[in-house]
Amino acid sequence: MKSHVRTLQIAFTYIGTIVGAGFATGQEILRFFTRYGHWAVLTILLATVLFIWLGTKMMVIARRIEADSYEDFNRHLFGERVGSSISLFTLIVLVAVNSIMLAGAGAIFQENLGLPFQAGLLITIFGSYFLLKRGISGILQINSVVVPLMLTLSLIIISNTLGVPGAGRFLFLETDRSIFGAWMSPLLYTAFNLGMAQAVLVPLARHTDEEKSLVRGGILGGAGIGFMLLAAHFAMSSQMPGILQFEIPMGSIAFRLGPLVQSIYLLLIFLEIFSTFVANIYGVGVQLKQHLPIAPSLVTPLLMLICYLFSQFGFSSLLGVFYPIFGALALVWVIMLLRAPMSPPPRIADPSGPEGKAITIVAVKPVIRITRK
Predict the structure, then answer these.
(1) Fewest CB atoms within 10 Å of the CB: 47, 62, 136, 335?
(2) Strand partners, 348
(3) pTM of the full predicted structure?
(4) 358: part of which helix (H) or strand (E)?
(5) CA–CA separation, 101 and 20 (whole Å)
(6) Taking a C-beta distance cutoff of 8 angstroms, is the pair 225, 19 a contact?
(7) pLDDT tens per residue, the chain (373 residues)?
(8) Cα 93 vs. chain centroid, distance in angstroms?
(9) Which residue in 322, 323, 278 sits closest to 304, CA to CA?
(10) Of the candidates 6, 3, 5, 12, which has an alpha carbon nearest to the alpha carbon of residue 223?
């Protein structure tokens, strides 16, 4: 039972890390998939396979090499110097993204609840701080709440879309986009999201005792991401091309389903911002604790303060510069992940045997426990 619970926690955290506010609004799905018409179903299936395969592989390798942070993982893929440089650039992008998410939380409080913008920022920061005091278990707990809610909303949207006249349009939707662009989109989408998610998934793998839980969680999580992509694409295709005019495409669908679904949707967007903010702060904090000459307990508050200060300014132009560069690096990162061998678990030789029998390290703690094969 404990193994099954851990598998679900890993799957939910994987989904919650990939599925952020951009996913919830529908803009990501519209840009990377739906606008490519009938190709979208096939490209979503390709993205699903990549999420299952590469996400699982990343977590398994991270556990086997005992990577404490995504910097350790990048050094394993690229070597010391290049890996450290890529990790530094990733840190800058993550801080910028977190600042944007924090500003988004403030906007939700201001525009939909009638509360001050600063109230949204401070509630998100203090809530994240107290949750992060629980470490990786806090991330598992918040995603165990948010992701089932996301899956439930996906099912509600699917059931309501089935009665819409254009429900079957997702299979035959015409597009004037190039085939090359259609098939590059799932590669870029997967690379970018996995490049960002490594900040959470690498330390998560390091703190998982059983490798089989990582494998099952990676498979289940990747499949869940694919299901939610298909559900959103199915709903938005029925409203094409009119839905292209909306800033929040999924919101235009949710708001038609009544006040209850509208309230759930707004809560969901905030919770996705909150859970992604928590996860990214944790991942960046783990890396910074390896370098900053200050008490580890001060790293998280300092990082949150930086994000709070930056959230007061517009970051669209900054992300406009960093995102394309990071997207290109993410493709290189995925290629290196594809090429990376699946390192076997650590093994040492038994000097008592005549031929040096192999013994496998079962756990590496302050005390090493081994079993003889």
Answers:
(1) 335
(2) 359
(3) 0.81
(4) strand 358-364
(5) 9
(6) yes
(7) 677 888 898 999 899 888 776 666 777 788 888 888 888 889 999 999 999 999 999 999 989 988 888 888 888 888 888 888 888 888 888 887 788 778 777 877 776 677 888 888 888 888 888 888 887 888 888 888 888 888 888 888 788 777 767 666 667 777 777 788 888 888 888 888 888 888 889 888 888 888 888 999 999 999 999 998 888 888 888 777 777 776 677 777 777 777 777 777 778 888 888 888 888 888 888 888 877 777 777 888 888 888 888 877 654 555 555 666 677 778 888 888 887 777 665 554 444 444 444 444 444 434 444 444 4
(8) 14
(9) 278
(10) 12
Helix (H) or strand (E) holding 363, with range, is strand 358-364
Please tell me the distance from the alpha carbon of residue 196 to that of residue 90, in angstroms, as a whole number.
8
Query: 65 to each of 14, 74, 202, 203, how far by Cα in Å?
Result: 20, 11, 10, 12
Residue 220 token pair: 């289940």
Residue in 86, 100, 85, 53 with CA at minimum distance from that of residue 280: 100
Domain ranges across the chain: 2-342, 346-373
Reported residue count of the chain is 373
The encoded tokens of residue 172 equal: 């035959």
Tokens (6 digits) for 38: 């009938």
- Are the C-beta atoms of 128 and 279 separated by less than 8 Å? no
CB burial string 357-368: b at 16+ within 10 A, e below: eebeeeeeeeee
Q: Which CATH architecture has domain 2-342?
A: Orthogonal Bundle (1.10)
